[in-house]
Each structure stands twice: as C-alpha cells, then as structure tokens.
Fold this sequence. Notes:
Strand order of the largest sheet: 6-5-4-3-2-1-13-12-11-10-9-8-7
Order of helices and strands: HHEEEEEEHHEEEEEEE
Oligomer: single chain
Distance between the termini: 84 Å
Radius of gyration: 21 Å
Largest sheet: 13 strands, antiparallel
Helix content: 10-25%
Number of strands: 13
Structural class: alpha+beta
Number of helices: 4
Amino acid sequence: MKKIISLLILIVMIFSMTLLVSAEMTGDEILNKMEEVRDIQTNQMELKLELYDPSGSKRVRTLTNISEDYGQKKTLSRFLSPADVAGTGFLSIDKPEIDDEDMYLYLPALGSVRKISGSQKNGSFVGTDFSYNDLSLVSAENYNDDYQAVVLEDNEKEYILRLSPTDEDIDYDYGKLWVNKEMWYPVKAEFYDTRGKLNKILTSHDIQKIQGYWTPQKMVMEDVQEGTRTILYLESVLYNEEVNSKIFSPRYLKRY
C-alpha cells in the first residue's frame, strides 16, 4: 500500500512540475502581454523635457504628443518652446504590413518636411538623448515590434529580459529590460553597442495608474558614454479621447 501511495505522490509531483513549466512565459509572450495590457487607442500628452550636457548645464523644452492606434500606430509630436525649436514637428506612421515605419521631420527654419531614412533613425531626436528609434519605446507598447526577447531572470517582482533587435535600422547590439509583474510595465531598460559596451539607460519613475493605465510621471534617458541625459516629465495626459486623424500626415506638419 505504501508503494502505491508513494507512486501516486510521485505522479502528482511530476504533473505539478509539468504545469509549472508550461505556465512559464517566454520573452516574446511577455512583450506581447505588455502591449495587450496597454491597449490604448489614442493618447494626448503634454510633456516637459530637461536636457543635461556633461557639465550639468540644463536646457528646457515643452512639447505635445498625440497618437492613435487602430491597427496602425501614428504619432505626432510638436515642440512648443523655447522659440528656437517651437513649431518643430515629428511624425511617425507604422507600416505593419512590412514591419517598418515612415518618419518625417519638419523644421520651421527650413520650411520643409523631410523624410528620415533608415540610417538617420539612430540619430538624436532634436538634440535629446532619444534617437528617433528610441521614441517608440516611450509608450512601452512597441518593444515586441522591434525586438525579440529571451527571459534571463524570473523572480517574484519582475522579469528580466534580453532583447535582440529584429529591425535592421536599430544599431544597438542588444538590450536588457526589467518588467514589473504587477503592472506589466518596463521600469528599466539598458542598451548595449556593437562592442558590448553599455550605451544608454532608460528608467521610469513614479508610475501611477491614470484612466486605468500605468503611466510614469518621469522618464530618464541617460547616455552613459557621452555623459548626457534627458529627463521627460509628464504634465498631462488623456487616453482614448477622440483625435482628428487628419493631423497624421506630412502635409499637416507645416501647419503650426
């Protein structure tokens, strides 16, 4: 009888271990879960940027950011101040059918809209520590579009993932991502260059639930190699309010 009971216990243990293994999430499943939890159709934000050079000197800029996502993500950013950048506009339109995006920049001083090519997408976004490619990470929704993930660590608090770029326009060799399990929100990301050296660190702070969505009140992008950093402060946000879809066009960028 004891042998039968022992056998039953062994079978239950093996079955339980199988369930645990099958319940483990892959890295890509975690990225998809992050996007599912967000599931935001539109957002309208007012932001303040603080740009710090290696000596600690600060410049301040303000901008608006409007986006919509009804199967195709579109984002329009417009600088409001100071005067030397006011009116500068940036437009990004995802092209999911070819896993790419079109990016456009409008500079009032030139009075023309130019399309940003693949090689230029790794350049600085209007003097900040964010590249044009990095901008897609601010919303915390697009990691699964540009990266493939493998789980490095799974603890009670968070997942730590290794990110490998799937977009050939991204010049990072790989990244690491810390995803909070309660919020399904990335609290930290590190990006490494082709030499394997740490290049940038992106951190999210004071994450609060606004209109049902976890939202950081501050994000910091630090370029550890250049000794610079950009701090992004959220001044206001509206989720899932109707926006005029006509604004998401290169022609509209000139209308300031």
